[in-house]
């Protein structure tokens, strides 16, 4: 752990700290770092070709996140550590744009008791976020440029698909997803 990471972990205890750093003339070779400094620390590194700047991108207190969000960030970290040719078909690891959009989506959702999130890589530098209930599923595919496409399915049959132009458009999709879950009423 670098001195800067140690300082940030101590300064921002119980926080998600995301960093992007590198040097060079283009943004092709970069290092992405995210740490969750709660009882367990997690970090990932993804290196491409040559970056041209260094910047801290965000610090988010973990007390503001639900458990599914923290677990989703951990899963995202694993996907972001994939090497070149991770699928043996020449795919590159997720891009910075896809990683930033995925992180923004995960931390912007204000539904505490959402079903667990799956985070999977998409060939060509993208990331897919998936939620599934007993009858419904929602997939958000984040393309390498950071744009988002969605697919809603019910009982395995597609019911709607399209593009999201803003991150705040995910709430109605998630409301649709969880509206199929049975409601438990306390006696």
Topology, pairings included?
Blueprint: H1 3-11, E1 15-21, E2 31-36, E3 55-61, H2 67-80, H3 96-108, E4 118-122, E5 126-132, E6 136-142, E7 148-154, E8 157-164, H4 170-178
Antiparallel strand pairs: 1-2, 1-3, 4-5, 5-6, 6-7, 7-8
What tags apply to this protein structure?
187 residues, alpha+beta, five-stranded antiparallel beta sheet, 24% helix
Tell me what you see in this structure:
This protein is of the alpha+beta class. The protein folds into 2 domains: 1-64, no CATH class; 65-187, no CATH class. Helix content is 24%, strand content 29%. The chain contains 4 helices and 8 strands; from the N terminus they run H-E-E-E-H-H-E-E-E-E-E-H. It has helices at residues 3-11, 67-80, 96-108, 170-178; strands at 15-21, 31-36, 55-61, 118-122, 126-132, 136-142, 148-154, 157-164. A 5-stranded antiparallel sheet has the order 4-5-6-7-8. Helix 2 runs antiparallel to helix 3. The longest helix is centred in the middle third of the chain and has 14 residues, at 67-80.
């Amino acid at each position: 752990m670098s001195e800067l990471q140690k300082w940030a972990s101590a300064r921002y205890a119980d926080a998600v700290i995301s960093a992007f750093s590198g040097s060079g003339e283009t943004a092709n070779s970069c290092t992405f770092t995210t740490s969750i400094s709660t009882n367990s620390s997690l970090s990932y590194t993804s290196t491409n070709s040559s970056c041209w700047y260094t910047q801290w991108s965000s610090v988010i207190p973990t007390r503001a996140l639900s458990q599914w969000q923290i677990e989703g960030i951990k899963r995202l970290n694993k996907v972001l550590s994939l090497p070149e040719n991770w699928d043996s078909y020449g795919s590159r690891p997720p891009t910075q744009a896809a990683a930033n959009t995925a992180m923004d989506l995960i931390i912007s959702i204000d539904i505490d008791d959402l079903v667990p999130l799956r985070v999977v890589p998409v060939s060509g530098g993208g990331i897919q976020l998936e939620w599934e209930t007993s009858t419904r599923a929602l997939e958000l595919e984040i393309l390498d440029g950071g744009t988002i496409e969605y697919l809603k399915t019910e009982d395995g049959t597609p019911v709607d698909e399209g593009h999201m132009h803003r991150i705040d458009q995910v709430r109605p999709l998630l409301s649709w997803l969880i509206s199929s879950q049975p409601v438990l009423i306390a006696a």
